[in-house]
Amino acid sequence: MSEDDVSRVVGEITRIFRGEKDWSPVEEKLENLNFELRAEVFDMVLKRCFKVPHLALTAFDWVKNKEGFSHTMKTYNTMLWIAGEAKEFGMVNKLVEEMDDCGIEKDVRTWTILISHYGKVKQISKLLLAFENMKKFGCEPDEVAYRAMIRSLCSCGKGDIAMEFYKDMVQKDMVLDLRLYKLLMNSMARVGDVAAVHFLGNDMTHLAIEPEFFETLVRGLCKAGMITDALEIVEIMKRRDIVDGRIHGIIINGYLVRNEVHKALDMFQSMKESGCVPTISTYTELIQHLFKLNRYEDACLLYEEMLGKGIKPDGVVITTMVAGHVSQNRIFEAWKLFKSMECQGIKLNWKPYALFIKELCKASRTDDIIKVLYDMQASEIVILDEVFHCVVTYLKNKGELDMKAKVEKIYTAFKLDLQKCSNSEEQVSLRIKVEKDVVIDQSESQKVNYSSVHPHDKTYNEQDVHEICRILSSSMDWSLIQENLERSTICLFFEMRRNNYPIMPETWTIMIMLYGRIGLTDLAMNCFRDMKAEGYKPSRSTYKYLIIALCGRKGRKVDEAIKIYGEMIRARHIPDKELVETFLGCLCEVVPLSYSLLIRSLCRVGKMEEALALVGESGAEKPTLDQFTCGSIVHGLLRKGQFEDALAKVESMKQKGIKPTIHVYTSLIVHYFKEKQIGKAIEVFKEMQESGYEPNIVTYSALISGYMNMERPTDAWNIFYRMKLKGPSPDFKTYSMFLSCLCKSGRSEEAMKLISEMLDSGIVPSTINFRTVFFGLNREGKHDLAQLVLQRKSELIRKRKLIT
């Protein structure tokens, strides 16, 4: 059947199953359908019945009795998944028994489904038995199975057992995703296994996670109140030397949110001793909390310390200090500091004034309140209704009715001035919208006070404003909007420039956004350059809209987008989800990245024909893809036993001037040892060194394993000691692999020495390591030594408990 026919048949069968309550008409309708019963078709039917498991089972049982139909491993797997999700474990057991009775083999997916379901209901014994049976019946657990096992064990509170499975994964060059690493780290932290947490942390650093993702993780953990976990991530970051004042500030903020000020101050002192300079926001938050705790002198000392470090105060920290001074009735100091903002180039808007007035109301300083209001009026600062009502209520409660009348006159005069000026109601609402939509990411000290921009010589009229608003709201099609704007007689931006009105950062951002949306990226870039030339710092929104414009299909400039994106990151602006998706999508369209990832994935799952076909279809990008994917393709061909094809691929790359990667050389070494061709393996190793590659841990481990499998332990030991002498030093995976090989070859006493070497090197042996050596020594009749291994294991456990 064609794809359309299959879809039609699946739809008809599903509708029949779901449409009738009584079974007899269902069976009759199914019998009347003219179609061929095929397992792959019925598998789709089962998946559509996912939310009604008993209906799916009814369909499953009905079809297996039909002549000429046989269920497959795939349909049983689907049914197992449906039954497990519904927690129908009687049905699960019945299906497993049926598979055995019908002689249907179970694959890795079958066992993984069982593991996942047993884990969800915390049936640990069945969970472990399923994993053992998987290996017992010849299915090698894959990465998905191990991940399901670890996830299930962690959810069952068995992190110590999950850790052993993780170490098995490590030996097989498998990795977890970041979420599972975090889950496992939390589990080990809960049982106090510090060594395991550090071990996992080291493995996470090998994933080369970028600093900003570490920062995001720390911030998220602190927001969730999981500061202990966040500190573990910080320790990992310290080992990579990527901790700065901002990261410490996130932890300090986390403590302050929980009102653990003493811990925040301890962290603050620790970060300064480590050489990190606190950010201005960290100083501000600490000063605010010290004022709340009535620790006035400490807050003032912290402010002086900030100034002493050369950190220029912003409006937020100064306003905080003003509020602190007022709370201690130090009004002179408060006024002096408040007025210093203008001298330091900080533009005052209504917020600092409003906070000043509220604090003065608390301190019952009527004269100063009136003084602030007059100051606002003279500076043409908006007096909000909220502020006015706060003052009026205060004066009314105090019985100062004359002062109340004076304040009402000030407010009335302000309202009249507001009506006379060019700030129409429509313009005010438009300004508020722009401030919310475009400038939301700016700090308070950077936000522009629109009310202070008072164009005295009006060069446009109310009709112009209404016309612009009408055009902007007339359509969602930006090309049509642009066309209408160009046809109109208004050109507001250039009118502002011509009359020397101040062009605010938000104005530039809006212009960049408008030019970008219609593909005029040259003009957008010119706006961006002009903005910076006039001394304005681009905000996160400015960068975002410019990069999105540069990544668009019309007027695309990828090199410029990459450059601006890097500048954005260096300016410490965090891209949002929309920007990241747009940027990565653009890169995938113009760089053979998506092809490369797909080809590598196909190689990993053994679909070599599809991978090679994809390389062949890549056209002009083929040379670049060859460089990116050669290692994956060679490794995949060798795993499939296509040795000649793998060698041909290596030779073709050499002819093109592309030398094999260390990954390719290592794959060839593993293959030759597997084929018992030691001479060839050594030859490849020498060629690798002559090509300028230094062997890495994986290469050395392949050599050790190969020599041990060829019963040449002396050569294996020589390679091992070479690693220790010249580097890279053996890691946990290398020790574990070598230890297992020695025990298999009847050299468990030598493996016992490796346990000691691991401890001397600061590597903690796992329970499996101890168990492997213990069983090996007992098999060889060395029972006394086996008991010594158990004693050493007990000593190690006792020491780790003392440490925690």
CATH class annotation of the domain at 425-590: Mainly Alpha
Summarize model confidence as the mean pLDDT: 77
Main sheet summary:
none
Count of distinct strands: 0
| Alpha-beta content class | mainly alpha
Shape: globular
| CATH architecture descriptor text of the domain at 425-590 | Alpha Horseshoe
Helix proportion of residues, in percent?
over 70%
Remind me, CATH topology of the domain at 425-590?
A: Serine Threonine Protein Phosphatase 5, Tetratricopeptide repeat
From the N-terminal CA to the C-terminal CA, the straight-line distance is 65 Å
Family: Belongs to the PPR family. P subfamily.
PPR repeats: 107-141, 142-176, 210-240, 244-278, 279-313, 314-348, 504-538, 539-575, 626-660, 661-695, 696-730, 731-765
Protein name: Pentacotripeptide-repeat region of PRORP domain-containing protein
Organism: Arachis hypogaea (Peanut)
